[in-house]
Design a protein that fits this description.
The protein is α+β, with helices and mostly antiparallel strands and 186 residues long. The chain is built from four helices and ten strands; from the N terminus they run βββββαββββααβα. The N terminus is likely disordered.
Length: 186
C-alpha cells in the first residue's frame, strides 16, 4: 500500500509492520541517545518485536492491566533508541483524525513525543523486547493488548534501563560520542 499525503505537504509514512514476538530485523545496530550524547553498538541479545502494528493486520485487543500504561509511558519518556529525524503517524487512526505533527502525550508534567524512536524492555535472559514508541498510542487509543510476556516485562523494567549511553543495558564496549562536539566541525 502506498504512503498517503495528508495535505499541507505532509506525507504520512506507514509504520513498518512486524508480528508480535517475531525476531527484530529493522536495524542491525542499536543507537541509544540522551540529548547530544549517544552510544552505538551491535547487540548481543536477541531482540523481539512487539507493537509494530498496521491497519492491514489483526492485533490482539483488550484492557491493559492496572499500572501498565503508566509504566510504559515512563519507559518511553526516559529512552530514545534508534531515534529518527522524522516521525510516523498512527496508521490505525482514520486519515481525518491524524495530526500534521508527531503525536504527543502528557506524562509527569511533560509532553512526550511518539513515533520517532523505539524502546527496549528486558525480557527473559538474553532477550529484549523492541517496540516503537507509538505502542503507547496503540494501547491507549486503539485497545491494543501486547503479549503477556511484554506486559510483565514492562511492569518489571528497572528504572532508567537503557536511558542513555552510560545506562544499564548499554554494553561497556559501545562506541560513545558527543554529537554537540561534532556540530561545530565544518
Amino acid at each position: 500500500m502506498p504512503d498517503e499525503f495528508l495535505g499541507a505537504g505532509v506525507l504520512h509514512r506507514r509504520m513498518t509492520f512486524f508480528r508480535d514476538l517475531s525476531p527484530y530485523t529493522y536495524s542491525e545496530r542499536e543507537v541509544i541517545a540522551d540529548g547530544p550524547y549517544f552510544a552505538t553498538f551491535a547487540p548481543t541479545y536477541r531482540r523481539v518485536n512487539v507493537g509494530w502494528l498496521s491497519r492491514w493486520h489483526r492485533y490482539s485487543s483488550g484492557a491493559a492491566p492496572e499500572g501498565f500504561l503508566v509504566r510504559l509511558l515512563d519507559i518511553v519518556q526516559w529512552q530514545c533508541v534508534n531515534g529518527t529525524r522524522g516521525f510516523h503517524s498512527c496508521g490505525l487512526c482514520p486519515p481525518w483524525r491524524r495530526q500534521d505533527g508527531a503525536l504527543t502525550v502528557e506524562h509527569q508534567g511533560a509532553a512526550v513525543a511518539l513515533g520517532s524512536s523505539e524502546i527496549r524492555v528486558p525480557g527473559r535472559a538474553g532477550e529484549v523486547f523492541a517496540a516503537p514508541t507509538l505502542v503507547v498510542h496503540y494501547v491507549s487509543a486503539h485497545g491494543y493488548l501486547p503479549p503477556p510476556s511484554f506486559v510483565e516485562a514492562v511492569l518489571a523494567c528497572p528504572e532508567g534501563w537503557m536511558s542513555g549511553p552510560d545506562a544499564a543495558g548499554v554494553p561497556d564496549g559501545a562506541e560513545r560520542q558527543d554529537y554537540s562536539a561534532r556540530v561545530g566541525e565544518g
